[in-house]
Write a sequence for this structure.
């Protein structure tokens, strides 16, 4: 009986630490990625620019996500600082991500377009590939948060059993 308040405090601390680590990890993963939401059709495109440096990381990443299911052909092109296309991808799924090489420091541009006459809502992003420590922090935070939640459930079950025993 006396250990339950201590257990509750420990579980609360675990939930707090887990949530903080999960938030920090998520923020550090997306901190260097420029994200823009827009609508594309045969006339309108979405253009996203980011300054990338191979000294920070020699790999860049771009992602495109459609906000609704569509069967339209979407093309994503990444241009290097000299305006030369280095990646051209046809996207036929709702979420797409690809890694490319950063060879020179400068402004890299992601252009998302379609040949469709229908308006398509898209979200695109381009930036450096996040380092593995950001993913590790986020994953650790998730598991600590999950452990804390399981602890709350276990404590709840113990309290219910204890009350049932006292009532009978």
């Amino acid at each position: 009986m006396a250990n339950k308040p201590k257990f509750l405090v420990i579980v609360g601390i675990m939930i707090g630490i887990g949530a903080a680590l999960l938030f920090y990890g998520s923020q550090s993963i997306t901190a260097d990625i420029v994200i823009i939401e827009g609508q594309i059709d045969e006339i309108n495109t979405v253009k996203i620019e980011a300054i990338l440096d191979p000294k920070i990381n020699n790999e860049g990443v771009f992602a495109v996500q459609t906000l609704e299911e569509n069967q339209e052909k979407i093309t994503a092109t990444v241009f290097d600082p000299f305006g030369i296309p280095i990646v051209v991808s046809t996207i036929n799924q709702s979420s797409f991500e690809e890694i490319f090489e950063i060879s020179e420091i400068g402004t890299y541009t992601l252009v998302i377009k379609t040949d469709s006459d229908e308006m398509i809502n898209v979200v695109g992003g381009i930036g450096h590939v996040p380092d593995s420590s950001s993913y590790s922090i986020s994953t650790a935070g998730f598991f600590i948060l999950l452990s804390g939640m399981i602890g709350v459930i276990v404590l709840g079950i113990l309290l219910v059993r204890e009350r049932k025993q006292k009532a009978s």
Strands lie at 33-40, 46-52, 59-66, 74-79, 85-91, 95-101, 106-114, 120-128. The two ends are 18 Å apart (CA to CA).
